Amino acid sequence: MSSSEKSKTPSQNQLYGQSGKDSSSAYLMSIVQTLSSSADFEQREKEKTRIEKAYRESDKRLGELVANNYQDVTQILKAFNGMTKSINESRDKIRKIKEDLNSCKTLLHFKRDELRKLWKDGVEHKAVLSMLEQVEQIKEVQDKMNTYIANKHYLHATDMIVQAVAMLEGPLYGVDALRELKSDLINIKERMHETLIEELSKQIYERSLPSFSLQRGSQMRLSRKDASVWGWSDGLDSPRRAPKLEGSEMSSSKISYYEVKENLNSNPQDNLENFIAILTESLFALHKLPDGVERLKLSMKGSLNKLINTATQQIAESSGQQLDSMVNHVQPKYLNELLKLIFEQARYVAKTHQIFLNNVFRLTSSGMPLLSHVLYDIKDVWSEIQARLQILLSQYLDVRNTMSSRQQAPSGFDEPSMDISQYFSKKRPAKPKKVSLFRFDASQHAISVSSARQQIQQFEHLFSFQDALGLSDNWHIVKVCKPDAFNITAIYKPLRSFIVEVEEIMETSALQEFITDFVQNAFLGQVHAKVSENIEAATRVEEEEDGHKCFDALRNIIDEKTRRELGVPRPLLQSTVTVDSSIQELQDLMHDLPNYADQFLNMICNVLRDYKDKCNSAYRDIVQHGSDEKRIISSMWAKDDDISRFLRSLPSWRSLQPRQGKELDHTICSEEEMRALNSKEAIILISNLSTDESLIPQQEIITDVTQMRTVANVHESLEWFANRLDLFADSLTPQSSLAPLQEELPTELPPISDKTLQSLKQLVQEFKDLAEICLLLLHLEVRVHCFYYLLPVAKQSNYAGPIDDLDPDSNVLKLNKDLSGMEEMMTQSLQPKKFKYIFESLGYLVASILINSVQFLNKINENGIKKMCRNILAIQQNLTNITLTRESDLDRARHFYELLYMNPDEVLNAVAEKGPQFTLGEYQELIKLYHRSFAGNPVQVQDARMQRLHSVMEKGQNETLA
């Protein structure tokens, strides 16, 4: 090693700050070795100088550190001195203790027998003190138990009594002084489960029920306290449907294991779910859980009965009526409120049962097993609820009395399409035998006797089945309304919603089967019987003195009050209003029981069909006379296809249709067009009635104004009735309108069978057709009356008589009187536009009849012309009073007869100068009458005038065309 390397070694050790005894010694030895091994003095001096310098620097650095950390060093030194002192003192004490222990050991060795005796005495005294403490605790058990039970802290009470009995039967078994207390506590333990079961039943059937109040609008509201218990919204909102409950058959993975705790500082009833768990846990601790489950299962029927009775009393109190008197009043709204309250309470009861069952499964899955006949599930709860409701509903719906006097509803409406024209054919169908309307044994929908007996047996079996299940017990039900089968209409919708809710849990519902059996086998038949009875009374057939049967209901109209209530402008038949009321009741039933809409629509169709047959039969009795097959003329014309089609094509008829809604407007149809149409109508009628010299027999017209009023009433009634039915048919939805993937439409009524709906629309159309035929009959009958009275005016009267015979013809006076009577009748029975339709253009027809009748006059003189003009004037004045418009068409007839004052040559000259005002045939008949009336005119003169007439008329036509 070189000297330079040796000289570096100490400095490096110094720079690295080596300390400690070993390092210091090694460092010193290194310095000594360096100095001794160096032969050069100078080198030693340098090394010495370097060491001294390093020493001074270390000393300086040490001084600085001591100065900077003086306080810490002082504290360390003090602490070190104190520790050194404590260690020394401890050494002295240990030494002294060691010496004392050795002395004690020596002394104990000599006293060991005496110490062993004292230890045994101490153990005995300790055991006695423990037993005394236990006795004191046992003595306080009863007082604490009473306090816990009063505060409903049943879990603490149960644990206390179980521990106390276990202690008395264990460590304190031989204490004779506790024998009486032991007997009392054992008795308390044996009765404890009774209290728990009673409290559990109270929580399920009473405490769990929300406090409802029936307020305005009969809305039930949930109190804030009950809402907080269930964790729902506050009492300001209506209670929601109870949460859907899981089935009781739960797998072990679904059962939540948790420790049930009871807080002595809170009310255990504030949390219902935890309180039920506490009660269940208490029963489990008492080993009485199977008894509790069985007791709850067996008491379910009675508890539900009591619950329903309580709800009934609550409804009575909210209504402000005496419960005993409510049964005598028909007020199904209270039954509806009662069922809604019971439904809501049933949901809470089922919810609480589910909570209890969940706790039972939680405890029994790993502990005490239950026998199958003891355990029940949530489906058993819902089954018992449905059984109670069945008994309740059977009382309110009066099922037994309804079944004993029930009628069978028609099974369907299957009627082929019928042509209304068959009722107006020339050959009248044979009259049916006199039978009561809607007798089901005579209906095509009547059931056989065996089928009826079978249905009776079905319902008897239903009641026997209820008896077998214990459903028809001696439960006394105080009712809030009068029992009646029609109560089903007020409760069906909420009942159906409740059944749907039950079916979500149980898949099937016995309550649904009960309601279905009742509606189909009892209610539908009773509804049909009631409707049939009402309509039969309104459409009864009576036999008059002459042996002729008439439809008496066609003579009865509604009173003025009813007319104002219905808002109709003219009186309606009482029978029609009664039938409409019955139809409206069936429509309401369709909305009340939408699931049976098809059946009620079938009833409606059957009612309409029977009423239609009655109306058609009554119509035939009016338009058919005698025992032969003859009908009145207007009836034959009304059913004639050509005449009916022509009359329906006239603007005056089209203006009556409701869709057009306007009366005839001359801007749509000009006066020339109207005159042409009126002329065509007159030509058709004249061609049918004035072709021969025979007169119209009296039996071929309606001479009784009352019958015409009846026809008018039938028209107004059936038109009003058909319009209402049409609106009803349009509101129905056929099944064919649904898309393949569309189950239902958002409508109140479900889709209706296409076949039934088509039958309804066909019946509506037939009512419309009959109403239109009645109006056409009146329109034509007035015109036939004109023919009846005016044809004898020309055929039988003398117009070549003396000067004093200038009064109007007696037939004209009869016609005026007849028209005035019909005008008075139709004003009261028909709407103004229909009255106008009947009498409109009547003046033109009368003028045409009188002009056409000139051919039947044998002779006429100047006095006869004046008499004919007086006839025309009398008719014109009467028609003006009726129509309130001047009948200018009769001026044309009067002008026509005034031409007879002139000779034919003057007439021809006027035609040549001014143009023709009448037809060629009318001028020809005028010339013929002149030649018949004034003798001395040879035939050649008549032929010459005819030829001139032809030429003048042809010339006038050519000029017109040019």
TrEMBL record:
Source species, domain of life: Eukaryota
GO process terms (BP): chemical synaptic transmission; Golgi to plasma membrane transport; protein targeting to membrane; protein transport; vesicle docking involved in exocytosis; vesicle tethering involved in exocytosis
Pfam families xref list: Sec8_C, Sec8_N
Span of domain Exocyst complex component Sec8 middle helical bundle: 274-455
Residue numbers spanned by region Disordered: 1-21
Record key words, sorted: Exocytosis, Protein transport, Transport
Keyword Transport in annotation: yes
Role description: Component of the exocyst complex involved in the docking of exocytic vesicles with fusion sites on the plasma membrane.
Protein name as it appears in the record: Exocyst complex component Sec8
Lineage: Eukaryota, Metazoa, Spiralia, Lophotrochozoa, Mollusca
Gene (UniProt): LOC106054598
